[in-house]
Amino acid sequence: GYMKGINDFCNSYGAGFLYIMVPSKETIYPEYYANGYEVSDQESRAEKIHDALTENGVKHIYLKEIFDTIKTEERLYNKYYDVGHWNSNGIYHCMEELSAILSRDYPEIRKINLNDFELTGMKQEYLPLSLQRKEEIVPVYTPKINNLKGDGMSFFEKELVCRNGDSKYRFHAKREDKGKLPKILVFNDSFFEESDAEKYFLNQYSELTMVHIMNIADVEYYVSSLKPDIVIFEGCERSYESEGVYDLKHLKRKCFIKDVNEDEFEIRQIKTGLTISEGISEDGNKTEFIKVSGHVENMPDPDMLMTSINGRTYYAYTNRDYYDGKFVFSINREETDLSDYDGELIINCVYEK
């Protein structure tokens, strides 16, 4: 399926891929649900997804096994407050496992542990949405050393396109003393966002970029632009095939492939004019990326838009919810010189046969 396609595309760019499936609350605590809810004594969606990913060779973290072994020792989801998400205990154990996996490929990364955090409790008096009074002490993890500095707003407003307009789903940070630490790209939903997942990385990265999960439909754009070492796709079990979260229709028919061959794909080649935006940040400095944008007229929604500039292949961002032929490529100014470019692009519109 599309998960294997994303996995293979990332691998073709030299990036590792890891899927994190967050189990729903009823998957971990079926014994607390009323008779008739039908969650006990049957295979959960998490188990079915785990089996399919294993069969297709997609590397993933299967949190259900981990949570089932520790759920009697500590509460992983709150009883009342924000019941739709895990609590800080839940994300801590997720990030503990993630750091252990990353440390196998990157010795500079170490597995996080409880000594890295101050553990406290916060009294919540009202439910976050209904504001109904319901008191509960929820766990809070605060890093003991935290020099995390994000610049997510300026990065995405000036350099990349992010389909979701809500700024809380954007985060970017880059370290100057990066050493051999990896560049990490994360597609995440509210489970990571509501838990401030970035703080659990403990600055163990050279660059960390986090965008809303709905941008996964343009994964080739982000991977080819940012060139990460690791791509992490985090999503909740209950929304694995939700049209409201993923662009499923597009994902399931999309050709996530680096080398397109004409036996499997139809390639419609056109020439189009373009606009080059240098990209100037709020402080007046040039941004890392130059945006090359344009318009493809009278063409149906493609599975992929590709172009070659000075011998390098780039993939376009296209907003498929409102596709009207507009596209944008992000070009790293250090790897491609556009100063003498003639103002036209040959675009390959790719369709799976």
Largest sheet: 6 strands, mixed
Count of DSSP E strands? 14
Compressed to H and E, one letter per element, the order equals: HEHHEHHEEHEEHEHEHEEEEEE
Give the CA-based shape. Answer: globular
For the termini, the CA-CA separation is 16 Å
What is the mean pLDDT?
A: 80
User: What radius of gyration results from the CA coordinates?
Assistant: 22 Å
Low-confidence stretches: none
Going across the biggest sheet, name each strand in turn: 2-1-8-6-7-5
* Estimated share of beta-strand residues: 25-35%
Task: Describe this entry's structure for a reader.
- It is a single chain.
- The chain is built from 9 helices and 14 strands.
- It has 353 residues and is an alpha/beta fold.
- A 6-stranded mixed sheet has the order 2-1-8-6-7-5, sandwiched between helices. A 6-stranded antiparallel sheet has the order 12-11-14-9-10-13.
- The longest helix has 18 residues, at 88-105.
Quick summary of this structure?
The chain has 353 residues and is of the alpha/beta class. The chain contains 9 helices and 14 strands. A hairpin with a 2-residue loop joins strand 11 and strand 12 (312-315).
Key descriptive features of the protein:
six-stranded antiparallel sheet, globular, alpha/beta
Helix-strand blueprint:
Layout: H1 2-12, E1 16-22, H2 25-28, H3 45-55, E2 60-62, H4 63-70, H5 88-105, E3 117-126, E4 133-143, H6 152-158, E5 171-174, E6 183-188, H7 190-193, E7 207-212, H8 219-226, E8 230-236, H9 248-253, E9 265-277, E10 289-295, E11 304-309, E12 312-315, E13 326-332, E14 344-352
Parallel strand pairs: 1-2, 1-8, 6-7, 6-8
Antiparallel strand pairs: 3-4, 5-7, 9-10, 9-14, 10-13, 11-12, 11-14
